[in-house]
Amino acid sequence: MLNNFIDQVIKFPIWKNDGKSYVKLNELQKHQIKEFLNKVKSGIYKFEKNPCLCGKTNEELDVVISEKDRYGIPCEIVLCRNCGLIRLKERLDNYSTVEFYKNDYRNIYVGKEIASEEFFLDQIKRGETFLILFDKFVGINNINTVFEIGCGAGGILYPFYLKGKKVSGCDFNENYLKFGIEKGLDLYLGEVNTQKTPHKSQDLVILSHVLEHLNNPIEAMNNIIELVSDGKYLIVEVPGIFYISRTYFNPILYFQNAHVYNYYYYYLKIFFETLGLEVLYGDERCTFLLKKPLGWTRKRVTAIFDKNMQLWAKKVEVTLKKYYFIHLLKLNPYYIRRGFIHLLDVLGLKDPIKTLIAKINKK
Ligand SMILES: [Zn+2]
Predict the structure, then answer these.
(1) For position 333, what pLDDT does the model report?
(2) Maximum Cα–Cα distance across the chain
(3) How close is the Cα of 85 to the center of ligand 1, in Å?
(4) How far does the centroid of ligand 1 lie from the alpha carbon of residue 84, in Å?
(5) What is the pLDDT of residue 1?
(6) Ligand 1 centroid to 319 CA: how many Å?
(7) Interatomic CA distance for residues 160 and 139, integer angstroms
(8) Which of 23, 44, 99, 171 is buried most deeply by CB count within 10 Å?
(9) Is 38 helix (H, G, I), strand (E, B) or coil?
């Protein structure tokens, strides 16, 4: 019943295009967003249509849920009521995408021109989680080579490197790569280079928060699977739609102009199975451990869909509204509390009451 109420009360699009950012921006971020918008305005960056991966052609099944992303960058973010994927209505074309990742992406999203030790440590933590997951389901001794696409500073690879694995990675950002190279990692600039990373050369390929950025994920995944040796593995992680409330207070923080498609567990399970992979592990956080079967061949599919996805689409819609609703409720008590504390402060009662509460707690 509450779900029905929320569904009725909250209307899409929830967030309008008003240029307001929900992320506190530093000077570099502000500057880079301005640069990006100028490149769009002057036509250096161009957009193209971004059709849904489910292959549906009826545009009436798309509903705009937001007119901007978390940085206030204008972009229509739509939910497909046929399959439940959330996607950009229009994406940067291939040329603009490469330029965006070279020049704008890290400055806007990380807010630092060079990788920091802190960024690297965060990456290492994620890498350790992947290593533990992999060891649990497969066994770390079953692999020798690890390759990561979109590796940034290479921190995810680092725990595998310390285990004596032959690791390598690629990324578009030269400054971030430099950081990892100085740590002893074998990293190279640009897209996957099959001279350096030949077909069937890798025992484990990692794609961490990369798939959601890709313009043509079906074709790209086919290419990526080709790098994996027969009978070996992939770890793919994206930010899952049903995991939003675990990561973000306000659901708009999930929406990014760089996320071409946003996924949930069931869609990805079907996606990977359609591409001929075996799902060894997967969850709603959208962390997947996959196996490439012996004798795998490229899958010539243009769309990925099954009927259950229509039910999932409704679930995505209601859940999103619910997250937003919960966020509104949480917000109010928070501000009431802050307002109350401010009032006590003005009246000179904040510190005495704090001392009193501390005394009571001690008892
Ligand atoms: Zn769809």
Answers:
(1) 52
(2) 76
(3) 6
(4) 6
(5) 78
(6) 17
(7) 12
(8) 171
(9) helix
Distance 82 CA to ligand 1 centre (A): 5
Residue type, 148: E
* Amino acid identity at 29: Q
In the predicted model, is pLDDT for residue 163 greater than 60? yes
Ligand 1: centre distance to CA 1 (Å): 27
Q: Where are the domains of the chain?
A: 2-111, 117-308
Whole-number Å distance, alpha carbon 301 to ligand 1 midpoint, is: 15
pLDDT tens readout for residues 165-176: 999 999 998 999
Chain centroid offset of residue 292 CA: 23
DSSP 318-338: HHHHHHHHHHHHHHHHHHHHH
Q: Quick check: 293 pLDDT over 80?
A: yes
Q: Residue 334 above 60 pLDDT? A: no
CATH 3.40.50.150 applies to domain 117-308: yes
CA of 245 to the centre of ligand 1 (A): 23
Distance 191 CA to ligand 1 centre (A): 27
- Report the separation in Å between the CA atom of 316 and the middle of ligand 1, taken as the mean of its atom positions: 12
Using a CB cutoff of 5 Å, list residues around ligand 1, an ion: 52, 54, 80, 82-83
Compute the distance from residue 308 Cα to the ligand 1 centre, in Å. 12
d(CA 319, CA 309) in angstroms, rounded, equals: 15
Q: Which of 77, 76, 71, 89 is nearest to 35 (CA)?
A: 71
Q: What is the pTM of this model?
A: 0.89
Confidence of residue 351 (pLDDT cuts 50, 70, 90): confident
Å from CA of 80 to ligand 1 middle = 5
pLDDT at 363 over 90: no
Dist. CA 217 → ligand 1 center (Å): 14
pLDDT, residue 330, reads: 67
Q: Residues in the chain, how many?
A: 363
